[in-house]
Specification:
Blueprint: H1 8-31, H2 44-55, H3 60-73, H4 86-113, H5 122-132, H6 138-151, H7 160-187, H8 196-262, H9 269-282, E1 286-295, H10 300-311, E2 328-335, H11 352-364, E3 368-369, E4 373-375, E5 382-392, E6 404-413, H12 414-421, H13 424-429, E7 430-435, E8 441-442, E9 444-445, E10 456-457, E11 467-473, E12 476-484, H14 486-491, H15 494-531, H16 536-576, H17 581-599, H18 603-612, E13 621-624, H19 625-642, E14 646-651, E15 658-661, H20 663-679, E16 685-695, E17 699-708, H21 715-718, H22 732-735, H23 742-752, E18 756-762, E19 766-777, E20 796-800, H24 804-816, E21 820-824, H25 827-836, E22 841-844, H26 853-861, E23 871-875, H27 880-889, E24 893-896, H28 901-910
Parallel strand pairs: 14-16, 20-21, 20-22, 22-23, 23-24
Antiparallel strand pairs: 1-2, 1-6, 3-5, 4-5, 5-6, 7-9, 7-12, 8-10, 11-12, 13-15, 15-19, 16-17, 17-19, 18-19
């Protein structure tokens, strides 16, 4: 690069500007990622690289200082003493990683590549894009996230590698976007006026790319955050219902104890302990239960005698009534006794607060709860509450009034009650605190995991995104604040955000590569013009032609990319403005055609993303392996014959061939292996063999091998053949097509099943891919088929579906089956219609406004007359866990969308009355 003639003052100003640019650009883009500890677009990485290129190691102190300053000023309470804490180590290590990354990139750029804007080698430009622009950035990403995970107590290791990836991609975007602009601006200081145009074009193009990436990132993350907030708001309703359900369970158990005492005339401690043990086993939130009898002062001696009879030791009466007229309400029996011995003989009526609750329970004739108390009889203080349920004598007195003889009492633990109401998924989603009105301290929160402290100051009041719930329960009121965790908002959903960032990095790298290549061509042309001064006119014409060619090339590339994008955006907007179904369908068809050219590149990546995200769940259901082999045979036999090859299926499996596993994934593996073999076999045969390698009484180790006589594979290529995006040779994408993901997917699926896919091959002689897996055997399962002429016309069906298009689809399907259907748009309308008319069966969508299908089904099952009516879940939630949840709620069957009319008919025939 030509060096500008700068004075020492100008050098110092430029040095300071880059340092401040590092600091303030980092602050700006970190504001766009407020919910995450990793910034998704990190321009300072490009500034640091440019500074090291200019001043070598002399710019490293500026990087270290700017990085450390940025991370320190990001703290809520900045104090110099923080440098002596783990925060100081964290900030220092992050700054060291940023400096080391810039040093490595700068050395490579200075020694091996040079100024990318005047580089005449296409190979060096590629090295700049993929080595410096992408590869070197792994240094800061790994060191920085390691610093967070080691020294930051608020860092969540759950998304460790996701944060490494985000950090890496963010630095890559920063280097790719910032570095070319800085080089172009630097060049403008010494280039002739006529040569500045191309550099301004670089600045403008990269600036537009930066704006586009920033805008799409912000919009995507804001939308993701809003979706996460909506999901969390729905989840608060679930939490509220679950807590009320657990509180009601507490009332049920105390009612049950009161009823038991009232109906057991000769109550003994053995009977009492046995019954209470059953209640505690059913409800872990119960700490203890007691029977508190009402006694006057004259009957205390009889009470002491009964206590001695119960526990074979003298027990004194403790606690003086608040007034002389107050009776003694004494703990006569308690279970479990261990740890609660001191409570025996205690007059609970001697406590003013409990006296008030006892009086309320007597007046209301219903159980009443105390305010929250801290139970000191536990290993550590625990928040709990008491429930007093009045117990009356079965026989009425002379005034024909029920006589109150005591109170069934339960001690309930708040933490155990909440642990049954709030799932681990919800605990990971929310911060929460529970407190009583009029107090500013929580008796339970999620900040202290062990809840060993007495109370906590309220931390969520006045905070952002906080939802407050009120629980009214047996005379007491609880208030709950819930706030979605920042880690949840930042990483939900993370799959799409990773795909977005990866796509952005690829697009930006492609754009910068095009710009640098075109600038490379421009540099070479300018050099030729300067050398060939004798033939200036001819050289000028060549230069103009080159510029026109460049413009045409850019225009063609822009056209190729923008044409389908324009169609997608245009027809999408047109579809919103019309209500004609035929027109909309036509628009959608055009959108699909236009989108296919853009989707082809990433289709296989999307196929494997489910596996690489570690979220793929395999089914474990009975299936007939013979049926799978027969389907594969029927699928490939005609294809192989049309290609002029011989197809063989050698099945030596013992009968019957029923196993437990995931039949869809096993069939997918076989299809991938067979497709691969047929694709690379030009003559000869393809053979699928199935045999048992070893077996026990419950398991078979199977070998499913695909043998071909194709081109074979070189040993050095075979080592990487199962890696994603890898094919047998560089020409396969042109000769045979495909993305190279089929074998990688098969490999990953086999490993998830506990098996493996292996390869043996001789170049030029063919290959053998062997899928080995151990499966549990099972008895043959009965299969049912719907008779073609079955009559379903006498069935009346209630359909709950909120989507108008889906309403039309299901109504037309049922009409083809001569079935009368009544449509409703939500769960509440379905319940109202069901109570007004007679129906034989209900098709219920699960995701609906007002009242969803799950809650509607729960309510229907509570109505005695509808407990046995068949309810079929008709939903797009098709994962195994969704099916299990539907059955648990009360559905009889699960039909996944998109709906197949044959499956619908088969399902309806099973429930035909």
């Amino acid at each position: 690069m030509p060096k500008l003639k700068l004075s020492p003052l100008q050098h110092a100003l430029l040095y300071a500007c880059l340092m401040l640019g590092y600091l303030y650009s980092g602050s700006f883009f970190s504001g766009l990622s407020a919910q995450s500890q990793v910034v998704l677009i990190w321009l300072p990485a490009g500034i640091a690289l440019f500074g090291v290129y200019l001043w070598s190691w002399r710019f490293l102190p500026a990087i270290f200082l700017a990085s450390a300053t940025f991370n320190l000023t990001a703290q809520d309470h900045l104090q110099l003493s923080l440098l002596l804490t783990p925060l100081g180590a964290e900030v220092g290590l992050i700054a060291l990683g940023a400096s080391l990354q810039a040093a490595v990139g700068g050395v490579i750029l200075r020694r091996y590549i040079g100024d990318p804007l005047i580089c005449t080698s296409s190979l060096k430009i590629l090295l700049f894009i993929f080595v410096i622009g992408i590869g070197v950035n792994l240094i800061s990403a790994n060191i920085g996230v390691y610093a967070l995970s080691t020294f930051n107590s608020n860092y969540s290791n759950e998304h460790h590698w996701l944060n490494v990836l985000n950090w890496w991609l963010g630095d890559s975007l920063g280097v790719l976007l910032a570095t070319p602009v800085l080089f172009a601006l630097y060049h403008l200081g010494f280039l002739p006026k006529g040569n500045k145009k191309s550099h301004w074009l670089i600045v403008a193009t990269v600036s537009i790319a930066l704006f586009s990436v920033t805008f799409t990132t912000v919009i995507f993350h804001k939308n993701s955050e809003l979706n996460s907030l909506k999901l969390s708001q729905r989840e608060t309703k679930v939490i509220e219902n679950a807590i009320y359900r657990q509180l009601n369970n507490s009332l049920v158990h105390i009612h049950s104890l009161a009823s038991f005492i009232q109906n057991t005339p000769n109550l003994t401690t053995d009977k009492f302990d046995s019954y209470v043990a059953q209640l505690i086993a059913d409800e872990p939130s119960i700490k203890a239960m007691s029977w508190n009898t009402i006694n006057d002062k004259d009957s205390l001696l009889n009470l002491q005698a009964r206590l001695f009879e119960h526990y074979q030791r003298p027990i004194s009466i403790q606690g003086t009534p608040l007034s002389k007229s107050d009776p003694y309400i004494v703990v006569e029996m308690i279970s479990p006794l261990l740890g609660n011995e001191k409570a025996l003989g205690f007059n609970v009526n001697s406590n003013p607060k409990r006296n008030t609750v006892l009086t309320q329970a007597e007046k209301a004739n219903t159980p009443q709860a105390t305010s929250i108390i801290q139970l000191v009889q536990s290993d550590y203080p625990e928040a709990g509450f008491l429930l007093f349920s009045p117990v009356y004598q079965l026989t009425r007195n002379a005034t024909n009034k029920k006589q109150l003889i005591g109170y069934a009492t339960g001690v309930f633990l708040v933490k155990e009650l909440l642990s049954k109401a709030i799932t681990p998924y919800q605990e990971d989603m929310f911060h929460l605190e529970l407190y009583e009105p009029g107090t500013n301290r929580a008796f339970y929160d999620s900040f202290d995991e062990l809840q060993k402290t007495n109370v906590q100051n309220l931390q969520l009041l006045g905070k952002e995104n906080v939802t407050s719930l009120t629980f009214n329960f047996s005379g007491q009121t609880w208030l709950m604040n819930l706030q979605p965790k920042n880690d949840y908002l930042a990483h939900h959903p993370n799959d799409l955000s990773i795909l977005l960032i990866c796509f952005q990095v690829l697009i930006v790298a492609f754009i910068i590569l095009l710009i640098l290549l075109m600038n490379n061509r421009q540099t070479i042309l300018n050099h030729l013009v300067s050398v060939r001064t004798k033939d200036l006119k001819r050289e000028k014409q060549l230069s103009e032609q080159a510029n026109k060619a460049k413009s045409r090339f850019l225009a063609n590339m822009s056209h190729e990319i923008r044409t389908p994008l324009n169609a997608v955006i245009g027809f999408s907007q047109l579809a919103k403005q019309t209500k004609d179904t035929d027109t909309i369908v036509d628009y959608i068809d055009k959108i699909a055609l236009s989108s296919s050219s853009l989707l082809n590149i990433v289709n296989d990546i999307l196929d494997i993303s489910k596996i690489e995200s570690d979220k793929l769940q395999l089914e474990n259901i009975p299936f007939d392996l013979l049926g799978i082999l027969q389907r594969v045979d029927a699928m490939f036999s005609p294809l192989v014959q049309n290609k002029g090859l011989q197809w063989n299926l050698n099945n030596s499996l013992p009968q019957p061939t029923w196993y437990l596993g995931d039949p869809v994934r096993i069939e997918q593996i076989l299809i991938n292996l067979c497709s691969n073999a047929i694709k690379f076999t030009q003559s000869g045969s393809v053979t699928l063999t199935a045999q048992v390698l070893s077996q026990s009484s419950t398991e078979h180790t199977l070998s499913l091998a695909v043998i071909d006589t194709g081109v074979g594979i070189k040993p050095e290529i075979a080592k990487t053949l199962f890696s994603a995006f890898t094919q047998a040779d560089d020409s396969t994408s042109r000769r045979f097509g495909g993305t190279g993901l089929g074998l990688a997917i098969s490999k990953e699926l086999s490993l998830l099943m506990g098996g493996d896919v292996t390869l043996t091959s001789d170049e030029g002689l063919g290959s053998t891919f062997t899928f080995r897996v151990t499966l549990t055997t099972t008895a043959p399962q009965a299969t049912s088929q719907v008779e073609p002429d079955i009559d379903l016309s006498n069935i009346r069906i209630l359909v709950a579906e909120d989507n108008p298009i889906n309403q039309i689809v299901i109504q037309e399907m049922l009409r083809t089956l001569n079935i009368e259907a009544v449509l409703t748009k939500d769960g509440q309308e379905a319940i109202d219609t069901l109570q007004q008319q007679h129906f034989d069966l209900i098709l219920m969508d699960c995701q609906m406004p007002a009242l969803d299908g799950y809650e509607a089904t729960k309510q229907i099952r509570t109505l005695p007359e509808f407990q046995h009516i068949p309810i079929i879940a008709l939903t797009a939630d098709a994962m195994p866990e969704d099916k299990a949840h539907a059955l648990d709620v009360g559905f009889n069957f699960h039909l996944a969308k998109p709906l197949d009319i044959k499956k619908l008919k088969l399902c309806l025939s099973q429930f035909k009355l």
